[in-house]
Amino acid sequence: MACTRRTKTLVSTCVILSGMTNIVCLLYVGWVTNYIANVYIKVPMPVPAKKLEGDRKGETLRIIERLDRLENVVNQHIQESPLKGDDNQLDRSFSDSSLFNHWGQDMGPESRRVALKMFQYYGYNGYLSDRLSMDRPIPDYRPEGCKNMSYPSNLPQVSIVFIFVNEALSVIVRSIHSAMNRTPRHLLKEIILVDDNSNNDELKEKLQDFVKETNSKQPGFIKMVRHSKQEGLIRSRVSGWRAASAPVVALFDAHVEFNTGWAEPILQRIKEDRTRIVSPSFDNIKYDTFEIEEYPLSAQGFDWELWCRYLNPPKSWWNLNNSSAPIRSPALIGCFVVDREYFAEIGLLDEGMEIYGGENVELGVRVWQCGGSVEVLPCARIAHIERAHKPYTEDLTAHVRRNALRVAEVWMDEFKSHVYMAWNIPQEDSGIDIGDIAERKALRKKLQCKTFRWYLVNIYPEMRMYTDTIAYGVLRNSLKTDLCLDQGPDTDNIPILYLCHGMTPQNVYYTSTQQLFVGVLSPTIDDDDNKCLVDVNGRPRLIECSYAVAKRMKLHWRFTQGGSIQNTKSKRCLELLENNDNEFGYQLTLQKCTGQNWTITNMLSLWSTLVS
Ligand SMILES: *[C@@H]1O[C@H](CO)[C@@H](O)[C@H](O)[C@H]1NC(C)=O
Ligand SMILES: *[C@@H]1O[C@H](CO)[C@@H](O)[C@H](O)[C@H]1NC(C)=O
Ligand SMILES: *[C@@H]1O[C@H](CO)[C@@H](O)[C@H](O)[C@H]1NC(C)=O
Ligand SMILES: *[C@@H]1O[C@H](CO)[C@@H](O)[C@H](O)[C@H]1NC(C)=O
């Protein structure tokens, strides 16, 4: 799952790799973001970035250029994915590991070996964690205004739920200690640990001993829930909620550290209005040094594939000029706090979803559409480890896609088309089994929820709408159907032909206004604009659509399925030109139309009505 944090020049992409909410955040400059969710998440699969490695020539080289940074990341994660006792492999990745970039250079080889092994297992520096205080202080990054606030004494109590699978014991214990140290005693009713069937021995007896010892001082304070089989993040949260008895429940990962005063502002907001679901603001615990890195204040949203992303807070919030004011948020990215009974009334989480992914989007959309609200509080801060990688790599894209389609079908009305478009799959007979959604549809009816259009207009106005799209998919020329139109290297905006792989660089969208977008569907108005195919002095180019429109460039194309693609102004056609210097034997060109034909994978019904 990709949560994208944007500032002007830097982008941090958060990829949740598997199982639990392990958000891996990486810093890049701009464009790389768009690839991460689609390419990087498929690490165990042969992704083009990897496949290209051995074969450096022609167009391939240019793609490598484009994917270069990404490739480094992918390779690093491939190297650092868990090893099953293969010491040779350990040796090879030893010197390259990102673990030692900022930490441990002066350690002896044996310690480094142990540290690396733990890093590969946990995705963070478990070796260092074992050596840090369970009660360490962390910097107070709350905005100024938060520090002097007073709260009523009769706030509701909270149960804190930690869910985990194969987490380092010291990390779990530090999460618990920080919760106990930084939550006023009278407000913290209990802590609930949900073990989603870890197979790590440390989490059996040793954790049990810790629980026993804590409970000997405070009987029943820590409750333990163990799953006898792996249920995934979604059902783990619900298990924790079931075990909770305080009026408010906080659902968290077990690799966090609570900051001073985190609980009071949240409990006050929920006490004022029980239909508010509240997220703290997140800071980062660096996976290698365990230093706390301050993150800017953000709202939490999603793109059209329903991957989560960080958003700039809404204008209305900036206008308040009050950095301690609550930030309205379209959705949630991970951890949240909720009134225990309200959570049941609103329908918990969709337990028909698998493993993880999309459940926080579903919750956010559902709460808003059904009369509640979601907000992020700047005064409640929690630091969270963004892992370098997840212990068990598994291709989760299929689960995320399936879950996204459930959300689309139940909650998004006519806008469900956008989710299918973003995933580049047909809307009819997609061949994807999304399970039974009758219960969720009944819930929506029972709660008399508003439409998704209402939600987009009023709650998530930053989200781009694509109601004028009439066809989408990959674009192939009948002369050579194993090649697809591809956005090519991002640096020079020249579209190319490339072997069809169907990932986002080959997504094409054709609109009723005769524009052709190539590449990822830009999710929000704060993101880079879509790239439009433009005839620039007889050459095909990809230019930001809004710029091309403003400059009255030649960006309109006549296209019918199985026919030519002809620029409406220049009358030139997009065609293939035989070129033996080119790796694939053809190059893309604009020329006098010779009757070449193109097909795009998916047509929307609107297209046929326009054509006829
Ligand atoms: C904080 O509150 C106290 C008492 O309410 C007050 O005396 C003090 O001036 C306040 N400090 C700031 C920085 O506002
Ligand atoms: C915003 O608030 C700060 C103090 O909190 C003040 O100095 C500044 O003038 C305010 N800006 C505007 C535009 O109101
Ligand atoms: C800023 O927001 C906080 C939290 O809502 C509120 O308590 C405080 O009064 C606000 N400050 C100003 C100057 O409006
Ligand atoms: C393109 O399609 C037209 C009409 O179906 C057909 O007559 C023509 O031969 C096709 N051109 C090519 C190059 O396949």
TrEMBL record:
<keyword id="KW-0325">Glycoprotein</keyword>
<keyword id="KW-0333">Golgi apparatus</keyword>
<keyword id="KW-0735">Signal-anchor</keyword>
<keyword id="KW-0808">Transferase</keyword>
<dbReference type="InterPro" id="IPR035992">
    <property type="entry name" value="Ricin_B-like_lectins"/>
</dbReference>
<dbReference type="InterPro" id="IPR000772">
    <property type="entry name" value="Ricin_B_lectin"/>
</dbReference>
<comment type="pathway">
    <text>Protein modification; protein glycosylation.</text>
</comment>
<keyword id="KW-0464">Manganese</keyword>
<dbReference type="Pfam" id="PF00535">
    <property type="entry name" value="Glycos_transf_2"/>
</dbReference>
<dbReference type="InterPro" id="IPR045885">
    <property type="entry name" value="GalNAc-T"/>
</dbReference>
<comment type="similarity">
    <text>Belongs to the glycosyltransferase 2 family. GalNAc-T subfamily.</text>
</comment>
<dbReference type="GO" id="GO:0004653">
    <property type="term" value="F:polypeptide N-acetylgalactosaminyltransferase activity"/>
</dbReference>
<keyword id="KW-0430">Lectin</keyword>
<dbReference type="GO" id="GO:0046872">
    <property type="term" value="F:metal ion binding"/>
</dbReference>
<keyword id="KW-0328">Glycosyltransferase</keyword>
<keyword id="KW-1015">Disulfide bond</keyword>
<keyword id="KW-0472">Membrane</keyword>
<protein>
    <recommendedName>
        <fullName>Polypeptide N-acetylgalactosaminyltransferase</fullName>
        <ecNumber>2.4.1.-</ecNumber>
    </recommendedName>
</protein>
<dbReference type="Pfam" id="PF02709">
    <property type="entry name" value="Glyco_transf_7C"/>
</dbReference>
<dbReference type="Pfam" id="PF00652">
    <property type="entry name" value="Ricin_B_lectin"/>
</dbReference>
<dbReference type="GO" id="GO:0030246">
    <property type="term" value="F:carbohydrate binding"/>
</dbReference>
<feature type="transmembrane region" description="Helical">
    <location>
        <begin position="9"/>
        <end position="31"/>
    </location>
</feature>
<dbReference type="GO" id="GO:0006493">
    <property type="term" value="P:protein O-linked glycosylation"/>
</dbReference>
<dbReference type="GO" id="GO:0000139">
    <property type="term" value="C:Golgi membrane"/>
</dbReference>
<keyword id="KW-0479">Metal-binding</keyword>
<dbReference type="InterPro" id="IPR027791">
    <property type="entry name" value="Galactosyl_T_C"/>
</dbReference>
<dbReference type="InterPro" id="IPR029044">
    <property type="entry name" value="Nucleotide-diphossugar_trans"/>
</dbReference>
<dbReference type="InterPro" id="IPR001173">
    <property type="entry name" value="Glyco_trans_2-like"/>
</dbReference>
<keyword id="KW-1133">Transmembrane helix</keyword>
<keyword id="KW-0812">Transmembrane</keyword>
<feature type="domain" description="Ricin B lectin">
    <location>
        <begin position="472"/>
        <end position="601"/>
    </location>
</feature>
